[in-house]
Amino acid sequence: MSDSMPPGFSMPLGASLYPPPPYEFRRADQAWIQYEVDTEAIKQMLPPGVEPDSDPAVCEAWVCWYSWSTLGPYHEAYIMVRVVVDGVRYWYQPVIFTDSEVPLAAGREVWGFAKKLAVMSWDWGGASRGGTRNEQLLFTVERPAGQRIMTFTMAPEAPYPPSERENLPVLSFRHLPPSEQGAPPAASELVRLDVAGALYKSADGTPEFWTGRGSVSFDARSTIDPWHVFTPTKILGAYWTTADFSLPLGTVVKDYLA
């Protein structure tokens, strides 16, 4: 880049919205439900060469409350599909919501995460909605406000051994439309992200990794946000962790323009 360019990592140069990675997260609460789904129903959401690694396909619905990060505090919700690309297995993220400008821009521009803004609520115990306290986490997603895209519940009941979790790299599809009529996309690539993190531990040294009962439903049949194609056919498990982690730059594993 020319020395005459204003300084900065991201647009607008001279007043960058976000700095270079890695982005740090502390005390992140993340819960997810793993389940089976109709394989044919989700194929429309996968780029070429990305295939479910099983039939029925396995998905996870994740909900997150990041109370502290170098991108600021925010909520997030996303779907992951367990896939295989050129013999390597990944968790691929076809859809994702956030409720903050900075992670929206950074996620789309750096890795290609297909983030949209939505209205989200992390309600642990039910009191924030005026009801009696209970044992469940309730996470809701609306887009636009008033149209419920997803309802997620989870009741943590027992510690879960972290070694039982199969950790796979995350895969995203970074696709930038062309700036000029008739030109190819500015970028069209699969990006691998390897996340380094550490679980919090209780006073007796037990990792903050919980399992229990959970449910997820996709309420609206929206053609704009078709999360309903990821409707579960069988719940496999529900989990909740509290952790620190770091998001670095990714690695391009497939360039569709090459």
How would you spell out the order of helices and strands?
EHEEEEEHEEEEEEEEEE
Shape: globular
CATH superfamily: Acetoacetate decarboxylase-like
By DSSP (H or I, 4+ residues per run), the number of helices equals 2
CATH topology: Acetoacetate decarboxylase-like
Count of discrete structural domains: 1
The CATH class is identified as: Mainly Beta
Overall residue-averaged pLDDT value: 96
Give me the CATH architecture, please: Beta Barrel
Instruction: Let me know the largest β-sheet.
Output: 16 strands, mixed
Which structural class is indicated by helix and strand composition?
mainly beta
What level of helicity do the residues show?
under 10%
Oligomeric organization of the protein chains: single chain
Number of strands: 16
Gyration radius, rounded: 19 Å
Distance between the termini: 23 Å
Low-confidence stretches: none
Question: Which band does the percent of strand residues land in?
Answer: over 45%
Chart the SSEs and their pairings.
Blueprint: E1 23-37, H1 39-42, E2 51-52, E3 57-66, E4 68-69, E5 74-85, E6 88-98, H2 101-111, E7 115-117, E8 119-124, E9 137-142, E10 148-159, E11 170-176, E12 187-193, E13 196-199, E14 209-217, E15 232-247, E16 251-255
Parallel strand pairs: 6-7, 6-11
Antiparallel strand pairs: 1-3, 1-4, 1-15, 2-5, 3-5, 5-6, 8-9, 9-10, 10-14, 11-12, 12-16, 13-15, 14-15
